[in-house]
């Protein structure tokens, strides 16, 4: 047998060759891309680097959790966007979990009518793109009546084309907060918390869409608990509610938590759809920044970095929780 | 008590909680169903006409669909050439239906799909056999949605198998590259990936080389779908017992023979539901190309509603588009359930 053919017959040698080829390929493609990018940037007269973050942004942002004016820097504008992304994701996760759990449990309830209704909801929502649903929600919110004819479904809650106004807490007095009820004054509301139409539409869309997926996860989790467990609990004299709370849910959580984590991540990753209806989240702000400065590479890298951090952080949190509910086998 | 009576008592009024739920559900139905039926059927305006006739009718404006369905379905594709994408879609649906019969699972089916791709692209592009050439920039509506979804899935699937095998590989470099790619892409929102594809691809390419907007979006969709599909495939690979690998080794099969003949046929069969779930997600996600300025079904629907006179009837327009998306997604999920049962027949 020839030397080379013998070498090729060795699995280790072949492995080394393949790996060397992959490394070479990655370096070659990467280098080619970097070289092209640098040439193109030079041609367009765009300086690389994150220096633009310190420059004045010069554009306004419609809603912000922290004080912001167009005179602030790009860095602060991006921070405003990031906070908006975090806010919508956090609220979306909370509401979707509540509704999704309720629907999932309801779908398994002995009540035929409720189970069917929840089934229709899940199938209808899961099979239609989220962006389409967002357009509908946004359309519905903006065609609501004006502030003076606002819908008033609950005391202190007003729905109008100015958005959703809910009671807020007033901390300005010091010490205990006072409930701050919104009132109509002139053509708009004063007091309370105002959620913009964009925010309200995005929150409704994300919540309703994700809740349908969470409902299926909860249902699968509950179904994974062997029937004997329920029968045993009932035989011990536990009520239906106690059985669900003390026996079924703790075991179902083990099956539920891992896919639930990926749904939570989906909420954050779906929140940039905000850009389609004009809610200033991180991706929307960074897009404006790209259009103004041309610093596409840096902005995209920044957004990617932030989303990777959010993903990793949320995964770590959910993994910690998963460890707590996981089965401890001795 | 007779049987229906017993059934109603057991399933609707079995306990106090149950009764409350039933009453709530009935109240909800009473509040929503009659007004909806009135809006959608009795007060609706049907057939052709103007937005004015809709406003007088007061109910749903199906006139919108009668007047503007061509724009919604085909986007900016030249009006007198609409029969071409229509024919391409009809061929696609026919072949899809044929593929769902086990009788048709023969080698010719693969050839038929190859032929379909050629015929459909010729129909869409034109430029041969006396067909007027149509640039991809003018493609739109449902054909564009289907083209992006089908091509993204067809290209991403083999790529995802390589990625999944790479992630399970014993070679550290190949494993690291695969893990890095999968986790990086899965950590990113599709919207920013599509933006990256539309903003940065022009920067990545040598000077003077440009690629079309539709192709850029397609590359973005493919890269994204591949990462998620790879994770689904990995789930199947992990479920294969070690003995299968060892037996293949003992028979003297090479790595690729082992994978092709022993491991993948078993692994892919196990993960049909998550894979089809990912196909469904990909199909729905094609709607995001709206954001980077392509005229897919959703964007074309939005464009049809741009006219201020028609804008008040956006619910009707979006409802129609939603129904189209729903039909495709629902078909896929039902097909996956059937396929799962069908391929399990041999193992029983």
TrEMBL record, chain A:
UniProt cross-references to PROSITE patterns, sorted A to Z: ABC_TM1
Membrane protein topology class: Multi-pass membrane protein
InterPro entries: AA_ABC_transptr_permease_3TM, ArtM/GltK/GlnP/TcyL/YhdX-like, MetI-like, MetI-like_sf
Lineage: superkingdom: Bacteria
GO biological process: amino acid transport
All residue ranges annotated as the ABC transmembrane type-1 domain in the record: 82-318
GO cellular component terms attached to this protein's record: ATP-binding cassette (ABC) transporter complex
GO MF terms, alphabetically ordered: transmembrane transporter activity
Membrane-spanning parts: 16-34, 86-108, 199-218, 300-321
Gene3D superfamilies in the cross-refs: MetI-like (1.10.3720.10)
Keyword terms, alphabetized: Amino-acid transport, Cell membrane, Membrane, Transmembrane, Transmembrane helix, Transport
Compartments where located: Cell inner membrane; Cell membrane
Major localization listed first in the record, in broad terms: membrane
SUPFAM superfamilies named in the record: MetI-like
Membership in a protein family: Belongs to the binding-protein-dependent transport system permease family. HisMQ subfamily.
Stored NCBIfam families: HEQRo_perm_3TM
Protein name: Amino acid ABC transporter permease
Organism of origin: Paramagnetospirillum marisnigri
């Amino acid at each position: 047998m020839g030397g080379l053919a013998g070498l090729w017959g060795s699995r280790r040698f072949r492995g080394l060759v393949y790996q060397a080829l992959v490394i070479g390929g990655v370096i070659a493609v990467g280098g080619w891309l970097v070289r092209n990018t640098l040439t193109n940037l030079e041609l367009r007269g765009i300086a690389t680097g994150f220096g633009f973050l310190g420059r004045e942004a010069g554009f306004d942002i419609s809603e912000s959790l922290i004080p912001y004016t167009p005179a602030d820097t790009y860095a602060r504008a991006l921070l405003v966007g990031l906070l908006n992304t975090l806010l919508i994701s956090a609220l979306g996760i909370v509401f979707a979990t509540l509704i999704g759990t309720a629907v999932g449990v309801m779908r398994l309830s002995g009540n035929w009518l409720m189970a069917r209704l929840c089934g229709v909801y899940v199938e209808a929502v899961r099979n239609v793109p989220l962006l389409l649903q967002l357009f509908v929600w946004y359309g519905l919110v903006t065609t609501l009546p004006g502030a003076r004819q606002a819908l008033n479904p609950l005391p202190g809650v007003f729905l109008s084309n100015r958005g959703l106004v809910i009671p807020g807490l007033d901390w300005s007095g010091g010490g205990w907060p006072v409930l701050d009820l919104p009132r109509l004054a002139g053509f708009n509301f004063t007091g309370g918390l105002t959620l913009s139409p964009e925010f309200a539409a995005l929150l409704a869309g994300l919540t309703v869409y994700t809740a349908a997926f969470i409902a299926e996860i909860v249902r699968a989790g509950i179904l994974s608990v062997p029937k004997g467990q329920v029968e045993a609990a009932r035989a011990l004299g536990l009520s239906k509610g106690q059985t669900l709370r003390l026996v079924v849910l703790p075991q179902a959580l083990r099956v539920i938590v891992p896919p639930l984590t990926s749904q939570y991540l989906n909420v954050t990753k779906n929140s940039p759809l905000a850009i389609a209806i004009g809610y200033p989240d991180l991706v929307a702000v960074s897009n404006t920044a790209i259009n103004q400065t041309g610093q596409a590479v840096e902005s995209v890298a920044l957004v990617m970095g932030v989303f990777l951090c959010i993903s990793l952080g949320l995964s770590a949190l959910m993994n910690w929780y998963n460890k707590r509910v996981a089965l401890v086998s001795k | 008590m007779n049987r229906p009576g017993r059934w109603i008592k057991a399933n609707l009024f079995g306990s106090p909680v149950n009764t409350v739920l039933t009453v709530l559900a009935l109240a909800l139905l009473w509040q929503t169903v009659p007004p909806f039926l009135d809006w959608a059927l009795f007060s609706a305006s049907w057939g052709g006409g103007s937005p004015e006739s809709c406003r007088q009718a007061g109910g749903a404006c199906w006139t919108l669909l009668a007047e503007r369905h061509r724009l919604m379905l085909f986007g900016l594709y030249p009006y007198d050439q609409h029969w071409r994408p229509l024919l391409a879609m009809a061929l696609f649906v026919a072949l899809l239906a044929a593929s769902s019969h086990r009788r048709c699972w023969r080698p010719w089916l693969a050839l038929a799909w190859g032929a379909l791709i050629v015929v459909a692209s010729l129909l869409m592009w034109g430029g041969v056999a006396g067909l007027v050439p149509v640039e991809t920039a003018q493609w739109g509506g449902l054909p564009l949605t289907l083209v992006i979804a089908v091509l993204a899935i067809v290209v991403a699937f083999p790529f995802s198998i390589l990625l999944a095998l790479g992630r399970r590989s014993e070679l550290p470099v190949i494993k690291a590259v695969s893990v890095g790619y999968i986790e990086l892409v899965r950590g990113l929102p599709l919207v920013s990936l599509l933006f990256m594809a539309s903003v940065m691809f022009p920067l990545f390419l040598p000077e003077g080389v440009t690629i079309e907007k539709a192709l850029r979006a397609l590359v973005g969709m493919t890269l994204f779908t591949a990462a998620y599909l790879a994770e689904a495939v990995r789930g199947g690979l992990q479920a294969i017992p070690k003995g299968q690998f060892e037996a293949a080794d003992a028979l003297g099969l090479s790595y690729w023979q082992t994978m092709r003949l022993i491991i993948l046929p078993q692994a892919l069969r196990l993960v049909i539901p998550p894979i089809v779930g990912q196909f469904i997600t990909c199909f729905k996600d094609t709607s995001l190309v709206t954001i980077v300025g392509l005229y897919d079904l959703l964007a074309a629907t939005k464009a049809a509603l741009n006219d201020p006179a028609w804008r008040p009837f956006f619910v009707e327009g979006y409802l129609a588009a939603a129904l189209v998306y729903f039909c495709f997604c629902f078909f896929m999920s039902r097909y996956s359930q059937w396929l799962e049962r069908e391929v399990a027949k041999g193992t029983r």
